[in-house]
Amino acid sequence: MERIDDLGRVESYYLKYEMSQLFDSDLLQAFELIKVNRLDYICTQEEPLEYVCFLVEGRAKVVKALANGKTLLLSFYEPFEVIGDVEIIKAMPAVCTVQALEQCYLLALPIDKVRAVLKKDIKFLNFICNVLSKKIDYISHSSSINLLYPLENRLANYIDKTSTLVNDDRGGRCFSENLTQLAELLGISYRHLLRTLNGLCQAEILERRKEGYRITNEEQLRKLAEALYK
What is the pLDDT averaged over residues 217-230? Predict the structure, then answer.
């Protein structure tokens, strides 16, 4: 994480997302702009949080380490998402790990400076209640998806969310991850994952490359991914 000294940009994001409406007090001067590079961690489970963050640019994924040593994918974050909502209220370490999928920018409030103020701020507490209710609803929906939808749809959604642009003449997007870890995140076997990836290649939705998989049919991939939400 890198702190960026750019008050003009802080104010621009603050105004864009109408953040003055989230607080009883004017906290603009308390915000810091933080940059997180792709694949770096915004927070790590069980480690102390220095900031409560508002994701204003970029994408991230949220995972949870379980007691049995496995890791579970919980959700994806896009602007305007809050990171540290539970932790600032309960004064506890990070309850999950958040990893940047691309370069991210966050407006961040140092927890040690603002916790006492925010815990008495009725507007902010109402906002946090709304955020948490949406997250509970999302997790409930995700749990249903994990139980009831085929891996093909869940994998298509994951690829659509995490793929990156290819820098060559053909363009498009490429998906490249550790497949053993991905199988664990999705709660399936490595063999099942490989069979599903091969099926997507045979359907000419993906193309196997040395560095991973290129998306060759964006429309079909998105149809598979969006089936989760219909």
Answer: 84
